[in-house]
Design a protein that fits this description.
5-stranded parallel beta sheet; 16 strands; 31% helix
Length: 481
């Protein structure tokens, strides 16, 4: 690709012995003092020069272990090699052979726990920044208007209904349409993307990125129907009556969990689902947008939990004007399930962390607004079923904390609507749909499921991986009907 943007960049692979000597290239980011007051994306992305230099670190292993860590089976060495040749758009298309959402996955997937952790370089050096490079080529392809619809298989005449447009549903839709099947995605909300648009803040995953991925699927032939609640407007059985030969359920884990402690129903106490949906999907983040939904900012915002959703919530609270933004977590930092990068960014932005602490009661004013919370200090005991050390209350350690806004981010349960309205669809004791781990097949013939509705709250890439497996199984099933 001969463009002025590649001028002066030394393309091509480095000699094998030189590659480990090249340090991992950090991604430029907004200054913490600036970004803590805006919703612009935190990392600025690689330049072409940085991308080529980072891709040149790849050893091009004959047996690439990095691919074993990728739930959507991306040919990682192949797309990295294309980057070293300056073929950025071809690299993006190589990823899209197996991953319909590269711009999303490059931003929000925990590569440090998947493809990068098994990179051969990681044994002695830092692994290749696979996620950063995936993001770079996906952005390059989009920004240079070089997105190309892949060749699709001839039409099979079969139609598949996909319920939910989160990462599992979008992956199923993208894979099935390539196989020649007709695909309709039904989304309950007014925007496509599921958790990608309502759950992940603009500063971590801009809405234009998700829209671009959805638009590309539409160009491939996927049909989207928004504000369409399956289980209310139409049921699963009725979808078969409408001519769909198979149904995939990817409705996610959208039912928020609460702690069940006194005062939890006071005004100013939100589930993370509501708080993030108001900000992300209903545009509370757009300060100059009169159409944005109102949301309480609060001088002191406390978020309960230690996962990525908690990080998203507390950093959102800070950007909406909180003077103090606090994470309260009942274990220590070592047990936090949030990505290290998100914790690091939060620390840089001035987020306070109150570890080994849990609330036991909320107190409000005469108008029913939360004003204080009574807390208890904890210590770590023996490991529990999760493998993490169990938090044990310290008797007599009670204290109170003044607060204006509390956000409960302690996990979600699976959306119960479809299981409740679909006869013969088996669920487990947590309300998750029971589905085969390799195929997504449920107890109902022709009905498949994947993502958080099956596993409970997990990651974007694991949901996408489940969607990929289900798409293959649905394709095989459609050959029999």
């Amino acid at each position: 690709m001969a463009t002025e943007e590649l001028a002066g960049i030394e393309l091509g692979e480095l000699p094998l012995k030189e590659r480990p000597k090249v340090p991992r290239q950090p991604m430029p980011e907004q200054d913490p003092k600036e970004r803590s007051h805006n919703f612009k994306e935190v990392p600025n992305g690689y330049t072409p020069a940085l991308a080529v230099k980072e891709a040149q670190r790849c050893l091009q292993c004959k047996k690439p272990t990095c691919m074993n860590g990728c739930p959507v089976e991306v040919d990682i060495p192949a797309f990295l090699k294309l980057i070293t040749e300056g073929e950025f758009s071809r690299a993006a298309r190589k990823i899209k052979e197996t991953n319909s959402l590269p711009a999303v996955c490059g931003r929000v997937c925990p590569q440090e726990e998947q493809c990068e952790v098994v990179c051969v370089l990681h044994k002695k050096y830092k692994p290749v920044a696979i996620g950063n490079l995936e993001r770079f080529v996906a952005d390059w392809e989009r920004e240079h208007d070089e997105m190309q619809v892949p060749e699709l298989a001839p039409s099979t005449g079969k139609k598949v209904a996909v319920v939910g447009s989160g990462p599992a549903g979008l992956t199923v839709a993208g894979d099935l349409v390539k196989m020649g099947h007709g695909v309709t995605v039904f989304e309950a909300l007014h925007k496509e993307g599921g958790v990608l648009v309502y759950g992940i803040p603009e500063f971590r995953l801009p809405k234009v990125i998700v829209k671009s991925e959805v638009d590309f699927l539409e160009k491939m032939g996927v049909e989207f129907k928004t504000s369409y609640v399956i289980g209310k407007i139409r049921g699963i059985d009725e979808l078969f009556e409408d001519g769909y030969s198979a149904v995939f359920i990817g409705t996610g884990a959208g039912l928020p969990n609460f702690m069940g402690i006194p005062g939890e129903n006071l005004n100013g106490i939100y589930s993370a689902n509501e708080y993030l949906t108001r900000s992300n999907l209903m545009r509370a983040f757009a300060f100059d947008d009169a159409k944005g939904t109102p949301i309480m900012a609060g001088k002191t915002v406390v978020v309960l939990g230690g996962g990525n959703t908690a990080m998203d919530s507390v950093r959102t609270g800070l950007r909406l004007g909180a003077e103090r933004a606090i994470i309260m977590y009942r274990r220590s930092r070592q047990e936090m399930p949030a990505r290290d990068a998100e914790i690091h960014h939060a620390e840089e932005e001035g987020i306070e962390f109150h570890f080994l602490t849990t609330p036991i009661k909320f107190m409000g004013d005469d108008n029913g607004w939360v004003r204080q919370m009574e807390c208890l200090k904890m210590e770590l005991g023996e490991p529990d079923a999760s493998g993490r050390r169990r938090p044990v209350p310290i008797e007599g350690s009670n204290f109170t904390l003044d607060v204006n806004t509390v956000i409960v981010a302690i996990g979600n349960s699976s959306n119960p609507l479809i299981p409740r309205t679909t006869s013969g669809l088996d669920t487990n004791k947590w309300g998750n749909i029971i589905a085969d781990a390799e195929t997504g097949q449920t107890s109902r013939k022709g009905v498949f499921a994947g993502g958080d509705i099956v596993t409970g709250g997990a990651t974007v890439i694991l949901a996408a991986g489940a969607g990929k497996k289900a798409a293959r199984a649905i394709d095989e099933y459609l050959k029999t009907v």
